[in-house]
Amino acid sequence: MLKKGSGFNSAGNSLKANIIPAAKGHRVLSVSQLWRSRISWKITLSVFLTLLVVQTCILIVTVPNFEKKYLQDIRENGRVSFSAAVDAKVTSLSLKMPIDKRTSRNLVVNTKIAGFTVYSLDNDLLGSYGEAPLMQLNKSTFNNKSEVLSHDKKHYEIIYSSLELGYPFIIVAHLNSSDLQNTTLAYVKENLLIFFLLSGFVTSVLLIVLGQWLLEPIILLRNNLIEAAKHPEEPNITYPKRNNNDEVGVALKIANDLIKQNSMNLLQLRSQAEDRIHKLAYFDRLTSLPNRSMFLEKLEDNIRGHVMKDGGTLVVMSIDLDRFKDVNDTLGHEVGDKVLEAVASRFVHSMSDEDAIISRASADEFNIIVSVGDKYKQDTLTNKIFTALEEPISVYQESFQIGVSIGVSHCPDDGVEASKLLKNSDIALNRAKEEGRNTARYYSEDFDKVVQKRFQMLRDLRTGLEEDQFIMYYQPQFNLRTGELIGSEALLRWFRPDNSKNGGQFISPVDFIPIAEQSGLIVPLGEWVLRTACKANQSWHAQGLNPGRIAVNISGVQFHRSDLNTIVENVLNETGLDPKNLELEVTESIFMDDMEKTINTLNQLHAQGIELAIDDFGTGYSSLSYLRQFPIDRLKVDQSFVRNALSNSDDMAITKTIINLGHSLGLSVIAEGVETFEHENFLKHEGCDEVQGFRYSKAIPENEFLQFIRTYAGDLLPPQKLFEVK
Ligand code: C2E
Ligand code: CA
Ligand code: CA
Questions:
Q1: In this structure, how many other beta carbons lie within 10 angstroms of the beta carbon of residue 710?
Q2: Right CATH for 283-443 from 2.70.70.10, 3.30.70.270, 3.40.1620.10, 3.90.1150.10
Q3: Which residues surround ligand 2, an ion (CB under 5 A)?
Q4: What is the tens place of the pLDDT at every residue in 469-480?
Q5: Looking at the CA of 489, which ligand is closest?
Q6: Torsion angles phi and psi, residue 441, rounded to 5
Q7: Is 624 a pocket residue for ligand 1 (Cβ < 6 Å)?
Q8: Which residue's CA is the nearest one to ligand 1's atom 7?
Q9: In this predicted model, what pLDDT tens digit does every residue of 286-338 receive, in sequence order?
Q10: Is 508 in the pocket of ligand 1 (CB under 6 A)?
């Protein structure tokens, strides 16, 4: 959610700063990071092992050569030693041993020669010394092998030819090769160590090179991708030390660019969404004016600043468009919206000289705060509003004259809290509406008392309903020509208990019905009325009396807010009243809301056999078109017209028109509020069908009404000669 007090623009700007990801230092991977990466382990191990295996193979191949070389060496050393030991003066012909004993012992002690046998060129044995060689030369066998190595490789026997020795002798020598194995092993070990070190070195060099050009960029890429997945909006990405232009370097660069781009897009989207949410949360979509939340915040700011700090005054206005609902309902929301837009722009224009904040609070309600100095004329501001709407508003070539009611409160006089100021300007607005539209009212503490009284009344009404404080009264209705009783209107009475000596007092329905309507309490209350009236009428019929039908008032709220059809059906079933004995009186207000539903409800009621009358006809919206569309039986001329018909020519004309209109549509016409003979005479003259009024009877309780019908002889309206109406 947005922080309280964050201005509209500041929210947008602060976001933009975040869009560019903060430049990150060129952090590189440490060697240990490189080592820890799995891929480096794999590469290292495989390179190292491969090198080792290759080198071992080479070693295996070189070991026989090494051995061969060793044997060659001791053979050569033997040859040199023998050549030096032979006495050059002795010839093979002399068949004498050419190496004397001392020299022979020296040879055996100091060289690898362990023993030897000397032959003449004819293979004659001349002598031997030390360990005798196994190979022997004799005349009959030709020995073609010149050397033999024992199985355990410890003994090496060689035949040195006279050519090799450079003397006319053949020597078969037994050489000691017992250290051949150890020397070979040492050779192998030494080589293995060298190979191991070499492999390690080569691997390390390779890893450093690969690390730089391949591993590091790949690990960077992986780390950056993980980071981008974790924090797509603000990824903390790392850049390579050098920008390589090889394949991996380019891939890394592209990936980093994409991550950056993605983060920028996301941040931008978020900032747009936040801007939008901010707009939706604080601005009215239709008029683009601040909404109630924004208005309250601004009001609080102004109270703190302009009033508390600077000692100024605030004027808070609540403005309601008069009868705007009619425009909406009859011409549609599109027209309604256009009118509202135009009104909003007129308000903005009218306040252009003032330090004002204008907001749309709800459908047709606006609020304005104006900061003023301590001297100002109250009426100036409200007059500006009235003047702004003096010119009709044109929408789709139609012009609309819009009236407004204005409630005004002042800060600090009427409060120093935003909610209280607004509540008080709303109270003043309600008062303005009640006192006739197109007016402005300034909040006064007395208004509060009225509101408090209403709340008290609502609480009392609830108790009244729970504690059966309501009673039905009945007022008879007559056929104007015959004087016959045709029915009665059920009128609700409330005896509210109090501490007075009467134990309570009757409260007029004029006072409590509007409150019951506003609170919705009229729904259960109206159902109670219907049930009680139907039950009473049915019982009168059951007693064999002739009470006629019962007329029950149905309030507009009750009509729209409850399932009237079902309720009526249930009540008729419960009480057993014949539907033709029930008449419902509805007012023209029901035609203002949801026409289709109204037609349906009325048709269904009428189909049950119930009669329908329009009460207070002529005072409301009076659209004649609906009269044809709806199944109506009776028009009821409002008592105010009847009462004034003889003193006010307009009221007389209206009464006459209603009677004629009703008749032309085939409807009966009943007049209420007939108080005098003159009224009766006039109505009779105009051909009105039925009457109801104090001239015959007030609304009376059930027992009195029973008494009345039992005794009534049809003589209250004797057929009289008509007097001339002046
Ligand atoms: P309404 O439906 O127009 O009822 C007629 C009112 O005129 C009644 O006032 C009645 O007592 C009064 N009246 C009848 N004849 C005369 C007369 O000759 N002279 C004068 N001056 N007045 C006469 P009441 O009973 O005070 O009711 C006032 C309004 O309260 C009713 O006007 C009706 O709108 C409402 N109301 C009364 N009872 C109910 C109810 O049960 N349900 C609903 N929804 N509204 C009711
Ligand atoms: Ca009525
Ligand atoms: Ca009436």
A1: 11
A2: 3.30.70.270
A3: 553, 585, 615
A4: 999 999 999 999
A5: 2
A6: -130, 140
A7: no
A8: 673
A9: 999 999 888 999 999 999 999 999 888 999 999 999 888 878 877 888 889 99
A10: yes
